[in-house]
């Protein structure tokens, strides 16, 4: 059987060509959670008409999903399938002010399996944002978010023998200042995030100690943008981070505290309102107090292309240093590229297809993971408020870690109502 890397090579060439075509048309722009169910209501476009409440509009949404998963434990050999049902409720409260902005998002969800009740999960996210327009050229924004999410089998930070999901919680605070000068723009930002992970039970008994991953991550960043045309700007950005773990020796064998930086330069662009996005490249480094340092090229891309009135394409790429629970490794370089294609087949029928290839390259140990995933779906808007969607998700991971390979398929049918 071909490896994932060889399977993905031709697809990656296609993605690169799309990026290249998009760029040549221009005139001469992470967490320790890993793979989790972590819904961000404040990043969701409100649906439905909403209900006016004074100077605000409330957008409620309810989604009921039934599904089948042919490998719920993401196992290499003994695959276990199961069916599940989930319910997700979302409410977004958005201000209608002519100046300033307030947004509050709330999402609560639950999933229940027919047989493997150790995989049942309950998630909650509360996300609030406020933007203060100090004056025409100056804007200050603040964000606070609390989330209870779920890490499931197949997560790179959980052992292959995990018999249940692992709960993870995050508390984030962020401040941002943007000021427009006559010839350039400056954005300063700072954030602090507290991450907490619950222990997880193992197949055959025993418990995996997840508390060793609890830590605080602090970030400071500065970005300078200079417009070179009405639709194009070049920028330089620097980010500093500090990661402080709750436990240190002798409670744990190794001190995992670290600090790092990323310096990049890029271009942000828009082409006749049909193509817009940003690409950047640079260098990143993470220095650990008692483990091997991680460094290398940094890159990122985000491109949206309205190919026709009915078809759109999104392409993205990123690289970052992520934390790991592996004892002898400080972390890994996560690199990913992906694309998402959407097409309006009929006025009330949308089709979508997405694909992503990612690689986890661990420092200090001989471990590498190649992950290829696809997502296909069709959404039928039965009424202005009711949508029915059929979707299929496929994931394949290949790794040199014994027992770490797996392939999984998930088919879901959902009905959602937005009011």
Main beta sheet: strand number and arrangement?
A: 18 strands, antiparallel, barrel
Distance between the termini: 48 Å
What is the second-level CATH architecture? Beta Barrel
Order of helices and strands: HEEEEEEEEEEEEEEEEEEEEEE
Radius of gyration: 22 Å
Helix content range of the residues, please? under 10%
CATH class: Mainly Beta
Structural class from helices and strands?
Answer: mainly beta
**Count of extended strands:** 22
CATH T-level fold name = Porin
Strand content: over 45%
Number of domains: 1
| Global shape | globular
Task: Please mark out the parts with pLDDT under 50 across 5 or more consecutive residues, or reply none.
Answer: 1-36
SS element count, helices: 1
Q: How would you describe the oligomerization state of the chains in this entry? A: single chain
Average of the residue pLDDT scores:
88
Describe this structure in words.
The strands form two sheets. This protein has an 18-stranded antiparallel β-barrel. It starts with a helix and ends with a strand. The protein has one helix at residues 4-24, and strands at residues 36-37, 51-53, 56-69, 82-95, 101-113, 121-135, 138-151, 166-180, 185-197, 200-201, 207-208, 215-229, 232-245, 258-271, 275-288, 294-306, 311-323, 331-346, 349-362, 368-383, 386-399, 406-418. By secondary structure, the chain is mainly β. It is built from one helix and 22 strands. The protein has one domain (4-418): Porin. It is globular.
